[in-house]
Amino acid sequence: MKKMLVTLAFLNTLFFMSTACSQDDSNYIQPKFEDLGAYTPDDISNWPHAIFSFNDWACTDMQMADNRLGIDPIVRNGSRTTVLAYSSKENIRFTTLRSGENPYDYILQIKDFDADIPQVWIQCSSLDQMAGPITLTPLTSTLKIRLIEAPDNMESLQIVLPGMNDALYLFSGVTEPADGIKNKTLRLTASDGDRTYYLFPMCSDRSWNLDFTISIDGSQYPGTLTIPHGIGAGEALEVDFDFSKMDSGSYNVSYRKAEYGSKPALLASNTFENARYDETFKNKNPYYNVYVLEGSTWKSVEVHNALCSNAPRLHEQIWNDWNNAKKLRDTMCYAQFLNDFAGPVRVRIEKRVPFSQVRVRPSTWDIATELVAANTIEFSLPSWEHRKVSVEFDGDRYHNLFLLPNRPDPAREQYADGSADRYFKNGVYYFGGGKEHILAENAPIKLTSGQTLYIDEGTTLYGRIEARGSNITITGRGTLSGAKLQHVGNQYASGNILIDVLNNNGSNNCSGFKINGITIVDTPSWCLRIFNTDDVTIDNINMIHWILNGDGIDICTGKRISITDCMLRTYDDCITLKVRHNAKPIGPIDDVKIERCQVWTELARGIVVGPECGDMTSLSYKTGGISNVSVSDCVVLEASRANDSNFENAGLGVMAESAGSNAPGVPGPIDNILFEDCVIDDIHSSGRPLSIMARAHRDGKCTVSNITFRNVRIISQNGCRISGIDPQGNIFRTLTFENCDYNGLKISSLDPSFLICTNMDNVTGLKFQ
Question: Which residues form a coiled coil (predicted)?
Fold first, then answer.
């Protein structure tokens, strides 16, 4: 009996033990890992592991193990679990190592941000999912840098990785910066060869601009590699720096990218110039940095601001705002530099705010740009003839950049003799020293026959010029500015003319005026007015003016006039040929050649023959007329605000009216005018490409004859106003349109889409060829 009782007690104990064990097993989960073959590192089971369980209020359980075999069953307590494996304990830390705290206090954080970190693999899932296989996937990304044929004298390659994370929040499995977004700096030497780095994922999936600097023999060669969408969790990025062509002046940077465990494929390869950087003018301008490649150096170029006027949008508001009191003018920029242009010249431009698109005009020059770094483009100016350009970002023509290069002046040494920054001797006014020289409003430079004004490179002269006589020269490579002169007006601007060549002595015997090489900005009225002067040479000058009726070049009576290689931006007419009532004596204009000019008129006309043409009836001299004018290889970059009621304003035009505003009489004849090989380059939709017109006059009819437009291209992306022939009762004879086109469509007849004539009764000899 006693033996039976002992047996029953033993069986009862076994039953209760079995029941207790069954209850304990239900409260635990035994982790089961399932690796993804070749995708998973071979030794991951030997890495340190960590498991954290959470409910919504606290960490319910945690454990750390030196390897996978050391992991205990997971307590069923909570709603989600994070499992980690990391290849090393170096340079990482867990912020909290006890359970029961707020779940957001549990963070895996990098200790030294710039030092190496281990690989980290993770599974973040619900607690119920832990009963199935645990499949860890990579949290860290892999970056492999390879140096190919790195030169022995390379001290370092430094790479900055922007927008990096340094913390993993274990409750959510999300990486976020613990103390703000950081940039990680990598540094390699020539002996490193290949280096592999592990990284926490980036803070965003935006483009990743990796700025790098190569140091060789004390010289630094910076560059930027742009990787779209950056690098994400588990991705592998390989970047090769290939120096095998370093002796030829360049090196190559290429990258490959793939999901972790896949073979990376080549995505991009960029060639960088082996060039140093001169940063003399870096960030001196708030809008642009400009560099020019000279040998192996990117030489920084000074960038200047200039006001301009947005006529299409603001004309009514800024009319009569002579001194810009309303602050409605915009700010464009221009950059000048010297180069001999023995071949194409490489230019780098950094716009100091982000942009999406860029365009370099004239568009017919087909200058292609290359994005080489964040907000930075490069392109080549192909030749001396094709060097002056407008660089326009995101279609903005009122904050654009003009590049105005020049060749060094071979005559400079005879003026810049080092004796002084400013002098007058031997008939020469010299201003130099790279300084600003300011003249009083009532103290202009007065040039007389045989004298020269020289404005040296890098120098700005504030003031105005009066020229009276023959054989007068204005030259140099500097800038003449009217910014410090009074800008006043009533119906029209009445400030001083900036360069006034006024040979109104009644004899009409002055000749030989020359101006070349300088840039002129901010005129208070007309800029360059030339009265009664023959044999005029205007070559390679630039203008930027914002004031209303601020004409660029006004030729008022003269013969044998040459205007070449100029880039002009004005509110009013850029180039106009006139016979004015206030000329003494009034005389015709004859034999004018305008070649290779770029014109940009905000409101009026780009190049116009006229409008004032003298008076054949009522004035005492009864003379005038404009004849034998050729305009060739010119580009109209902008024209806008053409009138609905008449054809006065146009990119290229012929216009006849009497010798002065509201003057009676009949204008002199306009004859033998040729526009050839010109381009209307995508002007504003309110602009008019071409116009031939004459005002009606009660005293008689004027004659406009032998007008030819040959090989004129009209390029228009958004449409523009129609071109027109408007005789207004005057006599128009022999008007020829030869091989002209609108967006590639040949203009072969009058067409309401391209070209109209208001009254054919007054036109004879209209031809299309």
Answer: none
Q: What is the pLDDT of residues 124-145, one digit of tens each?
A: 999 888 888 999 999 999 999 9
**Tokens 């002067």 -> residue:** 533
Q: Are residues 459 and 583 located together in one domain of the fold?
A: no
Spatial distance between the Cα atoms of 225 and 267, rounded to a whole number of angstroms: 12
Band of residue 382 on the pLDDT scale cut at 50, 70, 90 = very high
Distances (CA, A) of 464 to 49, 442, 470, 637: 81, 9, 19, 28
Q: Which of 224, 259, 274 is the last residue of a domain?
A: 274
Cα(580)–Cα(623) distance, integer angstroms:
11
Same domain, 175 and 193: yes
Neighbours of 696 (CB within 10 A): 12
Confidence of residue 17 (pLDDT cuts 50, 70, 90): very low
Domain that holds residue 194: 141-274
Same domain? For 310 and 457 the reply is no
Structure-token pair, residue 472:
């007068």
Rounded distance between C-alpha atoms, residue 62 and residue 182, angstroms: 30
Instruction: Please give the Cα distance from 684 to 703 (Å, whole number).
Output: 31
How does 362-385 read in b/e, with b if 16+ C-beta sit within 10 Å? Answer: bbebebebeebbebbbbbbbeebe
The answer for residues whose C-beta is within 8 angstroms of residue 24's C-beta and 6 or more apart is none
> Distances in Å between the alpha carbon of 626 and those of 590, 668, 696?
6, 7, 18
pLDDT of residue 119: 95
Strand runs labelled E in 72-134: 74-75, 80-86, 92-94, 107-110, 120-126
Query: Where are the alpha helices (H) located in 520-589, listed in sequence order?
Result: none
Identity of the amino acid at 376: T
Does residue 22 carry a pLDDT above 60?
A: no
| Residue 40, pLDDT score | 86
User: Do 668 and 566 have their domain in common?
Assistant: yes
Q: What is the mean pLDDT of residues 264-291?
A: 79
Whether residue 631 is found in the same domain as residue 737: yes
CA distance 58 to 99: 8
pLDDT in tens, 172-205: 999 989 888 889 999 999 988 899 999 998 887 6
Sheet of 154-164, strands arranged across: 182-188, 154-164, 208-216, 219-227
Average pLDDT in the 21-36 region? 72
**Residues 695-749: tens digit of each pLDDT:** 878 778 999 999 999 999 999 999 999 999 999 999 999 999 999 999 999 999 9
For residue 662, give the DSSP letter: T
**H or E element in which residue 708 lies:** strand 703-710
Q: For residue 235, is it within any domain?
A: yes
Q: Is the dihedral of CA 630, 756, 614, 606 positive or negative?
A: negative
Cβ-contact 363, 715 below 8 angstroms:
yes
Question: Which of 484, 511, 538 delimits the end of a domain?
Answer: 511
Between CA 263 and CA 256 the distance in angstroms is: 9
Q: What whole-number percentage of the chain has pLDDT above 90? A: 69
Whole-number Å distance between alpha carbons of 355 and 376: 9
Q: What is the DSSP string of 731-756?
A: EEEEEEEES-EETTEE--S-BTTTEE
pLDDT at 255 over 80: yes
Inter-CA distances, 91 with 106, 113, 640, Å: 17, 9, 64
Q: Cα–Cα distance between 96 and 118 in angstroms, integer?
A: 19
606 and 752 inside one domain? yes
Identity of the residue numbered 82: T
Sheet containing 92-94: order of strands: 92-94, 107-110, 167-169, 174-175
pLDDT band at 13 (very low <50, low <70, confident <90, very high): very low
| 582 and 626 part of one domain | yes
